[in-house]
Prior knowledge:
The chain has 446 residues and is α/β, with parallel strands linked by helices. 29% of the residues lie in helices and 25% in strands. It is globular.
Amino acid sequence: MSAQGFSLFDLCASSLSKTREFEGKMDHFIYRQGVLHAEDVPLPVIAAQVGTPFYVYSTATLERHFRLFDEALDGMDHLVCYAMKAASNQAIIKTLAALGAGMDVVSGGEYMRAVTAGVPPERIVFSGVGKTHSEMNMIISGGVRQVNVESEPEMELLNIVALKHGVQVPITVRINPDVDAKTHAKIATGKSENKFGIPISRAREVYAHAASLKGLKIVGIDVHIGSQLTDLEPFALAYRKIAELTHILREDGHDIKRLDLGGGLGIPYSRSNETLPLPKDYGDVIKREVGHLGCEIEIEPGRLIVGNAGLLVSSVIYVKEGEGRNFLIVDAAMNDLIRPAMYEAHHEIVPVKEPLVGHEGRTYDVVGPVCESGDTFAKERDLANLHDGDLVAFRSAGAYGAVMASEYNSRPLIPEVLVKEDQFAVIRPRPTLDEMINRDTLPIWL
Length: 446
Ligand code: LLP
């Protein structure tokens, strides 16, 4: 492959339009006049103002991806609940909520983020494997669309807390359908060996139990089998099982009127990804498998909405000639984007300044400054010939990027920036070193 194969593609696309068609999906990060832009803003302009590294998101891409899901479920009573765990900045939540999005939250913190951003509680779904007593208090006081219950002990505690508040909490039970999602082991959740949900074989028993608890009101069924699914078949299998279960539970007398079908639709992380299913194809599977049940449908996509709506932009610190390999040492590290270290994830890395056609590229190991060999973003990657100070962008970094960052090696959390057409705003500033350090407090004996 030529070193600049990827950017040549962009060159063709860039001069023609403001969006980049990528495996059927689009984003708004394209080269114009030889410089990578986020919508109408050249990335070097943002870098000059906020410094590197930083995350940058495109409003147009976020909105487009949300609408693709919304339209995919056209004709069905539905709510697209954005899985906030993928990226939970207030500005991102507000952007999506303004389009009518609901939110899928998995902690008291995410719940408060949604409420603070102005999302009405009747559009907030509370998921998660281990909801605590204080989280239950919080969501019952503040209001919630439904709680997706994951175990019987949790169901019993939720009942007690609900009765204490004198209310009935709407619930679904998360069913583990024992379906192989065919994704990375760390993000597969729908097999019986995974910690999530209740085995489908026990569903009738558990629903009977739930029905006996006066503080709970059964409204439906929940299922989520994993993340970054690149094939629709596992979804179809799981949803078919949920459709069968809906009939059975209705015969048992339960009022199943809502199906929460989870998230998980994958995105193309690289050129070599085969053509992936689009939200429309996914919507067709939903219609085919559960459309006849007359249920209200909820889905919880995270990655597909925000993944390709975000870049991580970093500067080259040094080019180091190793033995038989060149290291491109950049100022972003595993603490800023942990996906390659944690899931062997591939992120396309592109130079912000577009290489000229015919430019001779170079092969690099792209690494960060953290003191671990795992702090490697890419091995033997064909890139442009880069130098100290050059900017590079990691594509598809919007989902599970900023939210999974840490301050390991005492590297402050990096800023997040949101672009809308020709405007941009810092939506989370970089803390100063003092701010980072002053979060520690000393015991009296020191
Ligand atoms: N609903 C539930 C109950 C979930 O557990 C998840 C993701 C989603 C929805 C959203 O799934 P998505 O549409 O984003 O695939 N950190 C990993 C991904 C972890 C996903 C966890 N659950 C990564 O960087 O790949």
